[in-house]
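Bench notes, afternoon.
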Amino acid sequence: MALHALAADPFNVRDIRVEGLQRVEPGTVFASIPFRVGDDYTDDKGAAAIRSLFALGLFKDVRIEVNGDVLVLIVEERPNIAAVEFIGTKEFDKDTLKKALKDIGLAEGRPFDKALADRAEQELKRQYVNRSLYGAEIITTITPAERNRVNLSFTVVEGDLAKIKEMRVVGAKAFDESKLLDQFDQGTGNWLSWYTKSDRYSRTKLNADLETLRAWYLSRGYLEFRIDSTQVAISPNKQDISVTINVTEGDRFVVSEVAMEGYYLGKDDEFKSLVEIKAGQAYNADDVAKTTKAFNEYFGNFGFAFARTDVRPEIDRTTNRVKLVLVADPARRAYVRRINIVGNNRTRDQIVRREFRQTESSWYDGEKIRLSRDRVNRLGYFKDVDIDTQEVPSSQDQVDLNVNVVEKPTGMLTLGAGFSSAEKVTLSFGIQQDNVFGSGHNLGLQVSTSKYNQYYVLNTTDPYFTEDGVSRTFELYHRASKPYVEQGGNYRMVTSGLGLRFGIPFSELDRVFVGIAAERTELVQGTNMPAKYAELCTQFGCKAQNIPVTAGWARDSRDSYLNPNNGKFVRLNTELGAIGDARYAKLGGQYQQYFPITKQYTFAFNADLGLGKGLNGQSLPFYKNYYSGGLGSVRGFEQGTLGPRDVSNALVIGGAKKFTLNTEFLMPFPGAGNDRTLRLYGFYDMGNVYGEESKFDLKLLRSSYGVGLSWVSPMGPLRFAWARPVRAFSGDRIQQLQFQIGTSF
């Protein structure tokens, strides 16, 4: 006679049988129960066995029956999921939803759990609410299938988007409500809301907007401003949302005095010079934050890593004036125990450490740490570089620096194609690796070929050829060109060269470059050859060999190589052809500066000047001429088409003098927030190229204006520009839409 296990007296188990298994292996059951054949059985062991089997999540029901001294485990398996299907989902990708369900245990081939299905349904509803689809309805259907399986389907009726129809700020008196609402990212929408989705309600975005509103008032003297409450209401049809923000402005306060208390290392005057707060002006929380940050950073320059500067306001409500007392506590001086590099899965530690000016086992120096962070950031290998200071447990005067980096792809594979009326089809190919095998070495191959022009360059750079940071660059190049069809002729010009260049650092920002190269230029004669080209054969024969020597200086204080927002870049370079068939000298200079207007908007200025002259009575070799036009110079004109032309066939031959002026106003792309990798810009360009004997004539300058898009994409920096010429002359080749990879201006 079979008895329920929990009613059985203790006995010795002679045999164990399992009934009801379909897909689960018997070994799985036997491994989960706390007794074996030959063991004594008790009610406690039976209860433990049932709990263990249920914990597997494989069974819907478990029972233990006793038949004499034989235990019978009777189980009912949970049905397996045969298929998961989503019906009616448009807002979310079905594959993404299936992956999310798989992460919580709902997937094809897994045991079905009704609790998990309910949880998935609620989570899906929450995600639709986050997308402002408050009316979304989700119906979960469980359909039995053969062999103890079920089909699981989620039928979704998404409905229409709920949009913000009304947003109010109640209690504002000092400012117009419309002006306050302009500070918000959310609102009733505008012409760009289809992209920015600013008219969709989000609690997270609303909290950010409330902080923006608070900062707005605090920066204008309203020291006691507060947000009393926020009400969000949705219409019965779940389509319209209204948001009401209740505020109390308080009075506007003016700073009467700024006082300093605490210990300032005997450098009170230096700290006073860092005070951004102005007595007699309205209280400004931004100026207060800048001052306390500057104080703490200055303390850090002397090793006080844990310095604190508190602000104590002393309010006089009778006169609406406030005295701000800056209370400094430098705490204790500390030195750096370790510098830990985190996040560099590919880049070697040494590549990051050699950029550090703060060293281990030396006093903490905030200025050196900031300089180190900027140097690592300028490598261009990382999306983000952050340095976190942590106290060392059980030590009062030691800190560890955790350098958290987020790596980005440093290799660039470029495949491009273009078409123009002159060049016809142009193909380009390039491989550039700025961090080969995580070693910090640069290796590149650039190939550009069309029916009329070919260009090949192979270069490699070791930025730390010596331990002191002297860089070494090898470059091998080959260029070949022939005239366009409309110009006739079958001559060709071929230039090949091999160069070596060293970069010598003289300070944190300054670097001097010296180099030497061996070049060979050959003019393969043919019909309809320009007069300037014929001069080469007359002076040197149709082959010229030169060994140019180069020297230059550069200073780079930009905060980023690819996405600068602040700082400047200055460059001077010379090239002297003193050895070989041609004698010449070239001098070039560039000045580039970025002015941050706000955190999001930047004004950029670039000036580029080049001068060349032949020596020993010779003219400047035409293959050393400057060219202008296109991205990188004057946008709106075809690449390299500005400047002198040959009188016989109007071929662009370049010139010995070049001047370029660019201005840009950069702004964030709508919806991209503070992401500086994707930006819009407006520009105005001016420039031209002049012959060696020509004077610099402002009247001959070409100019253009337009708009563009800058994007640091996974395959490299991209720039698109649409330009409209302001000043152009007859014969100029106009190209309004232009595109380029890897250019700065």
